[in-house]
Design goal:
Blueprint: H1 23-28
Length: 29
C-alpha cells in the first residue's frame, strides 16, 4: 500500500543496510 513506506521504496544510494540502521530511525518514523 502506498501509505506504508519501507526502506525498499528508497533508492539504494540513500538506503543504508538494515544492520547499519539504528533503532532511532524506526522510532522516528
Amino acid at each position: 500500500e502506498e501509505i506504508e513506506t519501507t526502506v525498499n521504496d528508497l533508492p539504494e544510494e540513500k538506503t543504508p543496510n538494515i544492520d547499519t540502521i539504528p533503532a532511532e530511525f524506526f522510532q522516528a518514523c
